[in-house]
Amino acid sequence: MHIDRHERIFFIASALLMVVFALAVGISGFVYGIQVPQPVGLVDPRTVATPGASEFPFGDSPEDRIRELSPGRYEVYILAQMWKFSPGSINYGEKPITVPAGSTVTFYVTSKDVQHGIKLQGTNVSMMVLPGQVSRLTATFDVPGEYDFICHEYCGAAHQTMYGRLVVEP
Ligand code: CUA
Fold first, then answer.
1. Ligand 1 neighbour 162 (Cβ under 6 A)
2. Whole-model pTM?
3. Which of 12, 38, 79, 150 is the most buried (most CB within 10 A)?
4. How does pLDDT run across 107-155, given as a tens digit for each residue?
C-alpha cells in the first residue's frame, strides 16, 4: 500500500505527540503528585448546611469540620458561599485551619450558592467548587507557614475578598 511521504510524516508526528502527552500525564501524576479533583458525592446546595442533611458533615460547626483521623492525618470539610470559605475564613472572625507540620490533609469542598474556585497557595490544590457537588483533593504540608486559599472563579461583587487561611505549625 502506498502512503504519501507527507502523510507518513504526519502519522509518525501524531504518534510521537501521543507518546509525549502520555509521558507528561504519567510524570505529572507519579513524579509531581498532581491529582485530578475527585467528585466524591452529590448534595443539595439548599440544605447542605443543615446538620444531618447529607452524608457529609457540612452542617456541623466550622471547628467540627476539621477532623483528625489519626496522628498527622486530617479531613477538612470546607463550605464555600458568597464570599467566604468556612472553616478558615479569618476575615469573618473564624480561626484558621491549623495542622502540625508533616500533616496530610484531605479537603472536601462544596458550595451552597454559586460556582466558586479554591486554590491553596504553595500547594497543587486547585479546583472548581460547584453547588451540588463535593470535590476532594489531598495535600501534605511539610513546611510550616501560612497557606491562604483563595477563590479563583468570579462569584460576584466581593469575589476578590473571598479567602481563608490554613496554618501549618512547626
Ligand atoms: Cu467565590 Cu469568587
1. yes
2. 0.83
3. 79
4. 999 999 999 999 999 888 899 999 999 999 999 999 999 999 999 999 9
- Give φ, ψ of 81 to 5 degrees: -155, 165
Give nearest CA residue, ligand 1 atom 1: 116
Question: Could you list the residue range(s) of the whole structural domain that residue 165 is in?
Answer: 38-169
CA–CA separation, 44 vs 121, rounded Å?
A: 29
Residue type, 124: N
- Same domain? For 68 and 150 the reply is yes
- Atom number in ligand 1 closest to CA 83: 1
- Contacts of residue 4, defined as CB under 8 A and 6 or more positions apart, other chains included, come to none
Q: What is the tens place of the pLDDT at every residue in 79-93?
A: 999 999 999 999 999
Are 24 and 37 in contact, with CB atoms under 8 Å apart? no
Residue 135, all three cell numbers: 470535590
Q: Which residues contact 13 (CB under 8 A, 6 or more apart)?
A: none
Cβ–ligand 1 distance for 66 under 6 Å, the answer no
Tell me the CATH number at 142: 2.60.40.420
